[in-house]
Amino acid sequence: MEELNKHFINNNRRHFLKKLGFGIGGLATASLLNPFGAFSGKEQLDSLGLNLPHFAPKAKRIIYLFQSGGPSQLELFDYKPLLNKMRGKDLPESVRNGQRLTGMTSGQDSFPLVGSNFKFKQHGESRAWVSNLMPYTAKIVDELCFVKSMHTEAINHDPAITFFQTGSQQAGRPSMGSWMSYGLGSLNENLPAFTVLLSRGTGRPFSQPLYSRLWGNGFLSSLHQGVQFRSGKDPVLYLKDPEGMTRGERRKMLDYISELNYKQEQEFGDPEINSRIAQYEMAYRMQTSVPSTMNVDDEPEHIIKMYGADSKTPGTYAANCLLARRLAEKDVRFVQLYHMGWDQHFDLPSQIEKQAKDIDQATAALILDLKQRGLLEDTLVVWGGEFGRTNYSQGTLTDTNYGRDHHPKCFTMFMAGGGVKPGFTYGETDEFGYNIVKDPMHVHDLQATIMNQMGIDHTKFTYKHQGRRFRLTDVSGHVINDILT
User: Which parts pass through the membrane (predicted)?
Assistant: First the structure.
């Protein structure tokens, strides 16, 4: 009798209604919407009302090449010859206009303008400006859509990266990949919908760290958090069976655990229990799918040569770009690649040359490889960091050396594939490279546009939490149709 009373105490109204909805019809509908079971528990019910995608998508998957640290647009893509002519002269106050500075340069007595030490040329039919730091990227400019008018609200790394990844400068919101996993589910039952790859650049190898909360699920089910694929013998931690355990024994153990978890879910109605069951099952399937995905030994020599020699060294940016293509081939919904080391406050010419060499060949190879396999058309590739760099030197300016501080007011990103215009440049900065003078694009605009390409109306894609409906773009953001085909 005590157990019976306990059962009824735990079955509240919400739990009863949830169970009522999970009749044969409800389960059948959920399986049709998402045959791989990307939703579970309460989220399966919620997903039935999402009606995603809202319209026909142009892209099925996203590869986001996040350049952590803030690449200098002035050394890579935003050519400003006036800065070379005015080298050493102070930034006019009429240009700066009292804009916020970081604590690293706000105390400087002067703000000496500095142009790039590197040469720029126009390339392709689109005549896009690219510096000699990026020779491979220069060859594919007609595949790229440059946005030279990105701007953000955060001026320091952690809130700026968090803003790009989650739509908020404060930690705790779901990452973009988690939103995609929750809203669209998985296309591959043997791999996570959202995977994460990390690499450390040679430009400044011990610069800003990254935190796993950047690919966290926030208030969404833990089923939707990013799964980090690491270099080394254990790409996903704790995935291997303990020594001495056979595959059959593992299967039997999981069946028993699932039975116990199911009984708990029946009693308490906690949707996280269903997520736990799904994660155990995914981990079991990943035991065979992950090693085969991570093993690039079957890649032909011409592909290895295309990505560069580093592509055979696990954990490098080049190796991760190759893995990103393999994951895209297997229909992983969202591949997040982070490359650290772009924070050039000092010794910029030397550091950025190494950093650009890390990523140039492999980025171009990834885009060309996707194109030759027919995957670029429905894969959206995004490249960029959390902010740009100042047009004045941080610290002492010499004939050969300088640094640049953080600059959130304007910077450059580029995209390829997935229904964005190839060979196109959007936005423009002033001749000092300090302010936007044409077609600004905010972080929320970028997020709205990315979701649009995945068939999602960002204003309708919400999740109710603590009495409020949240969305990736918060309460703003506009789709930038001018960059879309």
Answer: 20-39
Q: Which two tokens stand for residue 265?
A: 């879910």
Residue corresponding to tokens 């069976």? 241
Angle formed at CA 267 by CA 263 and CA 271, multiple of 5 degrees: 85
Average per-residue pLDDT in the chain?
Answer: 88
Q: How many Å is the maximal CA-CA distance in the chain?
A: 88
Q: 367 near 95, Cβ under 8 Å? A: no
Enter the CATH code of domain 54-238+310-483. 3.40.720.10
Report how far residue 448's alpha carbon sits from residue 446's, in angstroms, rounded to the nearest whole number.
5
Question: Around Cβ 461, how many Cβ atoms within 10 Å?
Answer: 24
pLDDT digits (tens, 9 = 90+) for 240-278: 777 877 877 777 777 777 778 777 778 777 777 777 777
Instruction: Determine the length of the chain.
Output: 485
Given the DSSP bridges, would you call strands 334-340 and 194-200 parallel, antiparallel or unpaired? Answer: parallel
As given in the structure block, the two tokens for residue 79 are: 């050519």
The two tokens of residue 309 are 């020699």
Q: Which residues of 272-305 are buried (b: 16+ CB within 10 A; e: fewer)?
A: bbbbbbbbeebbbebeebbeebbebeebeeebbe
Say what the alpha-carbon torsion angle 65, 393, 81, 339 is, to the nearest 10 degrees. -10
In sequence order, which residues have a C-beta less than 8 Å from that of residue 95 and are 6 or more positions away?
430, 432, 434, 435
224 within 8 A of 182, measured Cβ to Cβ? yes
Q: Is residue 247 within a helix (H) or strand (E), and if so which, with residue range?
A: helix 247-268
Cβ burial of 430 (10 Å; 0-12, 13-18, 19+) is: middle
Given the structure tokens 């069951």, which residue do they identify? 277
Asked if 433 and 78 count as a contact pair (C-beta separation under 8 A), the reply is yes
The predicted model scores a pTM of 0.87
Question: 363: which residues sit within 8 A by CB, 6+ positions away?
Answer: 65, 136, 137, 321, 383
Name the phi and psi angles at 184, rounded to 5. -110, -15
Residue type, 243: E
Are 336 and 66 in contact by the 8 Å Cβ rule? The answer is yes
Whose tokens are 């560069």? That residue is 308
Q: Tokens standing for 312?
A: 């055979």
The pLDDT tens digits for 395-441 are: 999 999 999 999 999 999 999 999 999 999 999 999 999 999 999 99
Burial class (CB in 10 A: 0-12, 13-18, 19+), 68: buried
